Amino acid sequence: MTTTAVRATRALDVPAIRRDFPILETIINGHRLVYLDNAATSQKPRQMIDALVAYYTSQNANIHRAAHTLAATATERYEATRQKLARFIGAPSPEEIIFTRNTTEAVNLVASSWGLANVHAGDAIVMTQAEHHSNLVPWQRVAEATGATLTYLPIDDGGMLDLNAAHALIGPRTRVVAITHMSNVLGTIAPIAEIVRITREKAPGAIVVVDGAQSAPHLPIDVAALGCDFFAISAHKMLGPTGVGALWGRRDLLEAMPPFLSGGSMVGHVTFESTTWAPIPQRFEAGTPNIADVIAFGASIDYLDALGMDAVRHHEREITAYALATLRARHPALTFYATDDTNVRGGVVAFNVRNVHPHDVSELLDGRGIAIRAGQHCAHPLHTVLGAVATCRASFYIYNLNEEVDALSEGLAEVEKVFARAIARPQA
Ligand code: PMP
């Protein structure tokens, strides 16, 4: 007889989590903050804030240089975050983790160092229609500089990547496949492992670059299992401070890449005539890095680890399902842009209220202390595909409660009252 180990997913203790986030007590326009703009940036737990303050209060020193105790401690703690992050995303080695400022810089690093050295005229760079500008504009620039062509894999009516198109459009000329893991507008999750499999089969010389800005905070990540070549993240979306991101890359690729930025800390030996490069990861971390924020990011990873990413994902599926069911049932004037299936989507929900500009919706909600985002969310081409000038976006995280979804719904009822005449007209 075989036994199947069933691992029950622990439910998050959301009230206890909320006590770790001081900002959630803030009063906005006379109401307690309802923060539903987590896709833009997450709020911060006391543990991360304490780590940041502790660093500047009692640990501040430059790293990788002096031999004194303070410098050694700071270096150790900075490197400890690299190890934690490697473990958190399933990277085979901490040396394959490069700290950057954010996802944007991580993608620029790959585009500039790998792209400009390896992409040639006539090659194809394949992206998707759902890319954030961060994983689109750097590749447009590589195409412009090299003469490569740009191809965009289409999404279907449910906001899911069309895999048939991937089979058809990824081919021998493809040199780069750059793809977002979770859309920051639709919340849909791309089948990365499948895209990697297609790429390896059809375009053996191509790299697969994954924009993990929205997935790393919300899904368990295992880059080795995904099989991709590069994976980019931002700390500020996963309980960490602003100003820190990371790029994971395969060792053989990183080791063969020229530097991105150059100067101190990234060299082997320098003469007046020439310079040799330091081994990875130092080769890609020129100058004094963001020591304090990297160390504080370590506390955020500890926090997520303690919750367990399976539990984080479970909570988000539940609240997203509740939000979609509630909003659809109570607000027939709302349009949604992606599938409701929480097996393939996360907690980013884009919508529009018929004939009402998203900025007006957002402003009325703000009057009730509810923070959502209105606009194009750094995804202009995707909005063209959706046929929407802009969208409202509510996005959830570990501290959000169903009652905050109810507050959103009550706020939308007010929007419907204020704009009743516009909503009663046919869709403009
Ligand atoms: N990609 C996606 C999918 C995002 O949601 C974001 C942030 N909105 C980014 C990239 C860019 O992140 P950052 O601004 O931290 O570089």
Description:
The protein has 428 residues and is an alpha/beta fold. Helices cover 40% and strands 16% of the residues. The protein has helices at 14-19, 46-59, 69-89, 103-118, 137-146, 163-169, 192-202, 223-226, 251-256, 291-307, 309-330, 358-366, 380-386, 402-418, 420-424; strands at residues 27-28, 31-32, 34-35, 97-100, 124-128, 149-153, 174-180, 207-211, 230-234, 245-249, 267-270, 275-277, 334-336, 348-353, 370-371, 373-375, 391-395. Strands 4-10-9-8-7-5-6 form a seven-stranded mixed β-sheet, with helices on both faces. Strand 7 (174-180), helix 7 (192-202) and strand 8 form a beta-alpha-beta unit. The longest helix has 22 residues, at 309-330. It is globular and about 75 Å long. Residues 1-7 have low confidence and may be disordered. The structure holds 4'-deoxy-4'-aminopyridoxal-5'-phosphate. Residues 39, 102-104, 132, 134-135, 180, 184, 211, 213-214, 234, 378 line the site of 4'-deoxy-4'-aminopyridoxal-5'-phosphate.
Keywords:
single chain, 428 residues, alpha/beta, 7-stranded mixed β-sheet, 4-stranded antiparallel β-sheet, 17 strands, disordered N terminus, binds 4'-deoxy-4'-aminopyridoxal-5'-phosphate
Question: Sheet with the most strands?
Answer: 7 strands, mixed
Strand composition percent: 15-25%
Poorly predicted parts: 1-7
What is the C-alpha radius of gyration, as a whole number of Å?
Answer: 22 Å
Count of helical segments? Answer: 15
Shape by Cα distribution: globular
Ligands, ions, cofactors: 4'-deoxy-4'-aminopyridoxal-5'-phosphate
| Physical arrangement of strands within the biggest beta sheet | 4-10-9-8-7-5-6
Arithmetic mean of pLDDT: 96
Number of strands: 17
Helix content: 40-55%
Q: Give the N-terminus to C-terminus distance in angstroms.
A: 63 Å
Query: Which structural category fits the helices and strands?
Result: alpha/beta
